[in-house]
């Protein structure tokens, strides 16, 4: 059973404006910053409320038609059961632990090529304490 929409991931042409808008205007909280090896901020993960998150990554310019949308993510109770179910339906679902935020995950694409991510959180996941 899907528990809830975990997060939406979008592109942002100006991360600071995005942070200001979502944090200062809407009351979200940045809980993780993605930085490259030189320390440059290229993405953020923010808490909306009660285990709902948004993720933004820097884009040079908006993508044509469809804006800066990247993927949807669904939190599931048992990632391996979901991977088995998805695999039975003909998709390739390889479960692995993310090296960045520590969540268990796998990815597929919908019929239009939109990326769909599935997450399961545990004590090693950045999101875990916020998703209870």
Write down the overall mean pLDDT: 88
Question: What is the name of the CATH class?
Answer: Alpha Beta
Order of helices and strands: EHEEEEHEEE
What about the largest sheet?
8 strands, mixed
> What is the rounded distance between the termini?
16 Å
In order across it, which strands form the biggest sheet?
2-3-4-1-5-8-7-6
Which regions are unreliable across 5 or more consecutive residues at pLDDT < 50? none
At the fold tier of CATH, the topology name is 2,3-Dihydroxybiphenyl 1,2-Dioxygenase, domain 1
Please state the oligomeric state of the protein chains shown.
single chain
- Structural class, from secondary structure content? alpha+beta
How many structurally independent domains?
A: 1
Strand content: 35-45%
Helicity level, as a percent range?
10-25%
């Amino acid at each position: 059973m899907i528990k809830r929409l975990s997060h939406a991931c979008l592109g942002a042409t100006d991360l600071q404006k995005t942070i200001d808008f979502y944090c200062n205007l809407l009351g979200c909280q940045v809980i993780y910053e993605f930085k490259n090896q030189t320390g440059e901020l290229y993405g953020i993960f923010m808490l909306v409320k009660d285990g709902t998150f948004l993720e933004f990554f820097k884009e040079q310019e908006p993508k044509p038609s469809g804006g800066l949308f990247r993927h949807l993510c669904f939190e599931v109770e048992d990632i391996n059961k979901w991977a088995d179910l998805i695999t039975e339906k003909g998709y390739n679902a390889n479960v692995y632990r993310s090296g960045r935020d520590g969540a268990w995950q796998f990815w597929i694409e919908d019929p239009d090529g939109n990326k769909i991510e599935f997450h399961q959180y545990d004590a090693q996941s950045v999101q875990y304490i916020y998703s209870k």
